[in-house]
Amino acid sequence: MRSTLPATGCGTYSGKGCAPASERVDLTRPSFSDSTKITNPLFPISRLHSALLLGHVDDKPFRTETTLLPGTRTVTWNGEQIPVLVSQYMAYLDGRLEEVALDRYAQADDGSIWYLGEDVFDYRNGAIAITEGTWLAGREGPAAMIMPADPKVADVYRTENAPGIVFEEVTVTSVGKTVVGPRGPVEGGMIAAELHTDGTTEDKVFAPGYGEFRTAGGGDLEALALAVPTDALQGPMPAELASLAESAEGVLEAARIAEWDGATATVTRMNAAWKTLSAGDPPPMIAARLSEVLAALTRSIEAHKPARTAQKAIDVTQSVLDLELRYRPPAEIDGARFYLWTQQLRVHAAAKDLAGVTGDVAVLEWIRDRIAHTLDAAGRSEIDSRLRALRTATDARNLPAAADHAARMGARLRGLIDG
Length: 419
Prior knowledge:
The chain is α+β, with helices and mostly antiparallel strands. It contains 8 helices and 15 strands. It has a 15-stranded antiparallel β-sheet that branches.
């Protein structure tokens, strides 16, 4: 006879709205014999090395980067040591760091995927403000099913199940659907309604090869724009894409010295390159954002606005790197993103934006965890030392010193990566 988990009470504020225990599929006690080999197509976290989601929250641009971190960790639950994979979730609102979460996942022997906890860090003005929502299986509550092995309509399961800390209950509303993905229709999708602690619900969409890729509710939207390896392409990267990245960096430097003739000529070439690339049907959400920020860059150059030009050059580079993710290994893109954030820090420092600089340091510290395994021991030690010096300068509110540390660290990282 299979053992079962206790059916804890409803975790909404009112204590109402949850499905009866008889409808739940997450009450059978899971066993884990090969927990980090995740094969469930609707939650392929072991293959989803890097994913980008775009959207809007409170009418502001929203961006999340989800990265599978190298190695495994261990969680003790029900007296069992369970190896887990850890995924790093980083969310940005209007270009500023909003939230970071470290999520722990494992696959049970029946093919269901379980969520064994998360460390949550919510940022305000660049600093950690609260860690509400942090939980660990076996400490605050039980593990939670994040995806059944073979979901069926009307299945109910709790993706977070520590009432008073975190709570979400999902009801499957449709399976076998063809849904709109980053590159077109995706078959075998699943749609679910998610109940939250406050009693509200939102729709979520899952699809093979992507996992969760669309959340909508209350007028906000978070949708998957690109995932690798699912959306990776074979063959060399288009020359126009490489040219866009190099040109954006050139415009950034031109803005710093107000060299407008050169910036104007460069952005003209950038618009021509993007016209060629956009004809090749790039991922639509990234394409829309790149078109928007490239147009803004062009206008800022025409108006001879140095600070705005520098910022828009960084925004363009960010979207270009998103497109390059289809052709280059995720760790390479993260290395380039690390460098880009050193330049963002310099822009914020020039504007005397302490909150911006503080947040940029945090971003660099988190991206460091994505790329550390690509460096040798000496390289890791050097970057860590430089990050500490940058953090010290920022904590001391010495923005010129922080900008100098960032510039030197960015250049050094490029040297370490290029060998």
